[in-house]
Amino acid sequence: MFEAVILDLDGLLVDSERWQIEAWQEYLKRFEVQLDEFEAVKLLDQRDYDNADYLRRRFNLLDDPLTIQEERQEIFMRLAEENIELMPGATEALQLLKESEFRLAVVSAGVRDYVYLMMDKFGWDEVFDVIVAGDMIDASKPNPMPFLACAETFALHPSYCLVLEDSRSGVEAAIAAGMQVICVPGPTTDRWRITGADVVLTSLDYLNLPTIRSIWRDGDNFNTPQPQPQLAPETRPSRWR
User: Fold this and answer.
1) Contact between 26 and 32 (Cβ < 8 Å)
2) Which of 15, 53, 109, 154 lies most in the core, judged by the most C-beta atoms within 10 Å?
C-alpha cells in the first residue's frame, strides 16, 4: 500500500493561481506591457526564476531574472497573504490523509518563502513532513524531479508514493516518476486534456480511502529505472521544520 502522499499546492490545496497571474501583471504594468490570458496561464507550472527569465526576453526587460523574480515576489507575497483561500475539500482531505497515517509532502513551483507563508496561514506546521519548493530543485513539472526528490527524502521507492495533482504537467511528471496519480483539475485546467491519471475527481471533497486503495498496484512498476533528482546541495529538501 502507499506509504506517502505528495500533494501539489497551487490550484489543488490553495486557490492561488489568479493571484500568481495578478502579481506578474502588476509587475509588468510598470513597463506598460501585459500578458494575454494564454501566456499568463502558461506561467503557472513553471518556477518563478524561469518565468522571470522568459519575461525578460519576451519584453526586452533590462533587469536580470533574479531581480525580476524578487520584485515580483514582493507583490505576490502581499497578494497571497491578503487573498489566498483554501480550495474546497482541502482541510478534509488533509485530515483524512493524516488520520490514515500517510506521510505527506507538498510540492510547489513557488519559492520556499511562499510555501512557508501558506504553512503558517493555514496552520499546516505539523501536517507536512517534506516540502519541495521551486527554489529548492533545478527542475519543474513536467520534469519528474520534484516528485522524485520527495521519494528520496522519504527513502521510499516511487511506487510507494501517491501524487495528488491539479494540472496536466503535474500528471505527466507523476507518471514519469513512476507514481500513481489522482487528478483534481484546478480552475485553469482543461480537464478534457488530462490523460494518464489513475482517477480524476471534480473536487477534493470526493477523496476517500477506497479510491486510494483501488489504484494501488502491488509491484507493477517496482523495477522501472528512475532518474536521480538533481538537487542543489545547499537546498536539499528537508522535513518541515
Assistant:
1) no
2) 109
CA 3 – CA 65 distance, rounded (Å): 38
Q: What is the 3-state secondary structure (H, E, C) of the chain?
A: CCCEEEEECECCCEECHHHHHHHHHHHHHCCCCCCCHHHHHHCCCCCHHHHHHHHHHHCCCCCCHHHHHHHHHHHHHHHHHHHCEECCCHHHHHHHHHHCCCEEEEECCCCHHHHHHHHHHCCCCCCCCEEECCCCECCCCCCCHHHHHHHHHHCCCHHHEEEEECCHHHHHHHHHCCCEEEECCCCCCCHHHCCCCCEECCCHHHCCHHHHHHCCCCCCCCCCCCCCCCECHHHCCCECC
What is each CA distance from 92 to 99, 185, 222, in whole angstroms? 10, 18, 31
Residues sharing a CB contact under 8 Å with residue 219, sequence separation 6 or more, in sequence order: 159
Greater pLDDT, 133 or 46:
133
Residue 146 has φ and ψ, to the nearest 5°, of -60, -40
Q: Grid coordinates in use for 170?
A: 503535474
Quote the distance between the C-alpha of residue 20 and its chain's center.
Answer: 13
Q: State pLDDT tens for residues 19-35.
A: 999 999 999 999 999 99
By CB neighbour count within 10 A (0-12 exposed, 13-18 middle, 19+ buried), where does 216 fall? Answer: middle
Q: 208: closest CA among 197, 221, 199, 219?
A: 199
**pTM (2 decimals)?**
0.87
